[in-house]
Amino acid sequence: MTGSLVILQPGHCVVTDLGRTKGPAFGLPVNGALDQFSAKAANILAGNLDNDPLLEITALDFRMRAVTDLLIAVTGAPLDLTVGGRECPQWEPVSVRAGETVAIRRIRTGLRAYIAVHGSFDVPTLLGSCAPDTVVGFGLKLVEGSEIATQKTTAPITQPHFGLPLFRLGFAAPDFSTHQVIEVTDGPDVEEFGSTAELLFTSTYTVSPRSNHIGLRLGGALPERQTTAEVLSRGVPVGAIEIPSRDELLLLLRGRGVTAGYPVLAVATTRSLDLLGQARPGHTINFCRTTVAEATATHRAACMELERLRTRVNTVFSLLGIGTSAGWRELPAAAGI
Amino acid sequence: MSAPTLEIFEAGDAALRAVATSSDVEANWTAVHSLAAWLRTAAVEGIYGAVPTYDSVLVEFDPYVTSARQVRAFVQLGMRQLEYAGTALRRPRRFDVPVVYGGDCGPDLERVAEHQGLEVADVIARHTEKTYIIRCLGAPAGSPMMDGPDFPLPVPRLKDPRLSVPAGAVSVAGRQAVIAPAVAPGGWCVIGQTPLTVLDASREPLVPYVPGDELRFHQIPEEDFTRFAGQFLEARP
Question: What residues of chain B lie within 8 A of the CB of A136, using their CB?
């Protein structure tokens, strides 16, 4: 049976997923959840596939009302979550009865929160993804009163012992902090910066208010390019660190234009990009150098953590009779266009 | 013909950049686009995209499913395959693009003419007399990136990039030319505008051309703008 929810206070909220991986070949940014780890965790806690559509809430308070019974999970930056006025835990599945209001207030330390709903949403896609793209004008606009259809409803799950939390999966949420240590690997053009490249590792950088989903602008000591040759436009990876001006360093996030003509000094690791997706203006960052092999190992360790969570969720949900998705990970679409 | 050598660089734990290093720019371009096409056809699990431009291709992958080392080996395999099999880019299609030059449609036309030491009419003539090859799709949103017209000098970018350039803007910068498929900020010199719609998110494919297709501009009078408005850019039959 399908369900639905109504947005009461949109704040800054979008329906997104893990991104438009087929986009870059067409010159479109990948976009999608900025903190992929939290987004995947929310979907896993809601018994969904990793890449299912979910809500990404940035910075501002948010409220929605369940029109039908729902099962949700909220992850991301620390915040105050209430359902029908009751305080509820983050990083755990939460049962919501029809008519109850889900409120998210005081997102702090980090910047973004994720709400996944069991059964996910039925929303339009472009090149296989529902992630908004501001350039081509794609994506669901959420305003007060917007209704989103969900593909399932979940009857309220009651806890016989009043006052005890319903689920205790005990997943250790990542650390959120106003100071982050970000791991990077040397970029393909690091040599163009000569010895000034080392400045990246000895300076502290502050996130500028001019930052957005396209890139973080970071103030601090700037390495300088030692060459002047014109660079032909070429594909740049998410996480690329460039120095396009004398004022700030630019670290590209998932909304980045796919091609650019600036040399790439360093590239933030996949795991570090999740932390950067939570960086607020005023937060500080130190960079440390790692290798591709170490970065891959770190990323895989985080994925394994999520796999263990999935196993626990599947066990609990099947005992409770909540339908779950197949217990394997939906791989990103193969590269065919 | 033997394919140019590719040099492979790390670009983080989820991408690598392969660069064709021969002195033949056409061969480099063909090599990186053939490699991208080969990677797409191969559809290897974990490799989800190849973005070829002029002399390089960015290969993106999921480091949980595969790894930089595996992808590097696979790209090398692709290069060797192409050395034997040769390149198989498909036959180009041809696009004709009507353009209103100058005025509100091309606010930088006179500046470009002055900088080149050419008459405005010469700038238009040089822009329209060339058959362009679409070299790659770029930012923002499927822009057809082309080698520029035969101007005496590279065209400098604007000192203050515009916050908003309209869809259909026809621009030049350096030794490159482009059409803007969607509204976006831009630092290139806008010399004209086409009334045709290049990109519509509800259509499949998103943009009508692929790298390797050919494109020509022709001048139309301003009063004809509305006649073409709302029509899609389509390949010549």
Answer: 141, 181-182, 199, 201, 206
